[in-house]
């Protein structure tokens, strides 16, 4: 079995962590049990490009239980948990190509290694596998039935490909499932982003101005958690409706040019490029902390920052000090990559349970329906979304009401008035 990981001797530690997390992923457990009996993915080659974490490990175990022949590479150079990668190789015999801190060349070499598997299904988190496949390995498209995409940034890229008629196969936007973005993006990103900032810096959040760039589901989550920790939250936005929502949620809303002057901690969660630029870094307070929780580090104009930096040093793990030409110091966390995975452990398992349940069931759906699907981006079927929500409620011990026959009839009728 081919693989490329940091150290196989870390495997036993990784296995314990995988098992610990599995206890908090009851929906995925139920799917795995069914997959073991039915084997709906028998013989299907899957190339997955995801964050190599304990939660992802349990998704990979579920795919293998369903009969899949799966390989895994990292979707971010700093998000890999090396002990988890080792355990997947040693204990579960799943090929992994991922090393925490790998350089850009190694990152893409690993993506190519995953593509050598000649996937029938691609699983992406950021669309790097899909874009590499279409740009450099079109010869492999003949094998591909369909794919899934985990994150907002990837869905944006894939919809662009579909609109330009270059997408070679159908893809399900797992990110857009209600049981994904309502919970993973909001509660998962919110908690894990603040966790990453605190682990990296040990700074006090209370009383500080926390500037959040973007008020999508991830931004809402970060704002909620920062406010709960006593921060004075400022939101920057380009969408009027989201800006109104942020204002009515009680946050200050202003342009980034104004927020740069007052912020103590900056978090980008937009999915766009160069949200914080050179001119913004240049006017920040001495000691300002800057990080990103969007998928790619391009949200920060790090090249622009370099042009006004006179000296750099790693002052703590994942904390790089930039001394600027104006004499101030700015601190960039985790190389501008996903702070929740660079400096912490990513989303809690409880919320990834639903996200990865969507992944597993979407792969099953794709295999059953790919022949009837066009080469575009599809939403997760509503019945899958609802079933995952039902199973999660059941696992949480929460019961809900059931419509009476009278209520069902009323909701589909037009004769009954007030």
Task: Walk me through what this model shows.
The chain is α/β, with parallel strands linked by helices and 418 residues long. It folds into 2 domains: 8-180 and 347-396, Adenosylhomocysteinase-like (Rossmann fold); 186-342, NAD(P)-binding Rossmann-like Domain (Rossmann fold, 3-Layer(aba) Sandwich). Helices cover 45% and strands 16% of the residues. It has 17 helices and 15 strands. It has helices at 11-22, 26-38, 54-65, 82-90, 104-115, 128-136, 152-163, 178-201, 217-228, 240-248, 256-262, 278-281, 302-307, 339-342, 349-369, 382-396, 405-411; strands at residues 45-50, 69-74, 96-97, 121-124, 146-149, 171-173, 209-213, 232-236, 252-253, 265-268, 288-292, 309-316, 319-324, 329-333, 377-379. The strands form 2 sheets. It has an 8-stranded mixed sheet, sandwiched between helices. Helix 9 links the parallel strand 7 (209-213) and strand 8 (232-236). Helix 2 runs parallel beside helix 3 (54-65), helix 3 packs parallel to helix 15 and helix 8 (178-201) packs antiparallel against helix 15 (349-369). The longest helix has 24 residues, at 178-201. The radius of gyration is 22 Å and the shape is globular.
């Amino acid at each position: 079995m081919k693989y490329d990981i940091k150290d196989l001797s870390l495997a036993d530690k990784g296995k314990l962590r995988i098992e610990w997390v599995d206890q908090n992923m009851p929906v995925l457990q139920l799917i795995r049990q069914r997959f073991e009996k039915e084997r709906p993915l028998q013989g299907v080659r899957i190339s997955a490009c995801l964050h190599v974490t304990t939660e992802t490990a349990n998704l990979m175990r579920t795919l293998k239980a369903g009969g899949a022949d799966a390989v895994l590479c990292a979707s971010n150079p700093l998000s890999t948990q090396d002990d988890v990668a080792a355990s997947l190789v040693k204990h579960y015999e799943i090929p992994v190509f991922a090393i925490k801190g790998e350089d850009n060349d190694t990152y893409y070499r690993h993506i190519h290694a995953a593509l050598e598997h000649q996937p029938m299904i691609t699983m992406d988190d950021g669309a790097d596998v899909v874009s590499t496949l279409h740009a450099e390995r079109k010869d492999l498209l003949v094998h591909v039935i369909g794919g899934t995409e985990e994150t907002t940034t990837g869905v944006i890229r894939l919809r662009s490909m579909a609109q330009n008629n270059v997408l070679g196969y159908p893809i399900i936007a797992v990110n857009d499932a209600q049981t994904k973005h309502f919970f993973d993006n909001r509660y998962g990103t919110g908690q894990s982003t603040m966790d990453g900032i605190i682990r990296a810096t040990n700074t006090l959040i209370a009383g500080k101005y926390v500037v959040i760039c973007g008020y999508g589901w991830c931004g809402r989550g970060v704002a909620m958690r920062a406010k709960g920790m006593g921060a004075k939250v400022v939101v920057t936005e380009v969408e009027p409706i989201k800006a109104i929502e942020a204002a009515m949620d009680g946050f200050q809303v202003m342009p980034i040019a104004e927020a740069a002057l007052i912020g103590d901690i900056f978090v980008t969660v937009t999915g766009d490029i160069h949200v914080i630029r050179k001119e913004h870094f240049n006017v920040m307070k001495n000691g300002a902390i800057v990080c990103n929780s969007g998928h790619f580090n391009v949200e920060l104009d790090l090249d622009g920052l370099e042009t006004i930096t006179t000296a750099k040093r790693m002052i703590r793990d994942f904390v790089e000090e930039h001394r600027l030409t104006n004499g101030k110091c700015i601190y960039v966390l985790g190389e501008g990559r996903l702070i929740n995975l660079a400096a912490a452990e990513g989303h809690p398992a409880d919320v990834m349970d639903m996200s990865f349940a969507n992944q597993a069931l979407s792969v099953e759906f794709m295999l059953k329906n790919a022949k009837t699907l066009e080469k575009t981006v599809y939403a997760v079927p509503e019945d899958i979304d609802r079933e995952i929500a039902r199973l999660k409620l059941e696992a949480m011990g929460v019961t809900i009401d059931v419509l009476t026959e009278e209520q069902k009839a009323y909701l589909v009728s037009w004769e009954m008035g007030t």
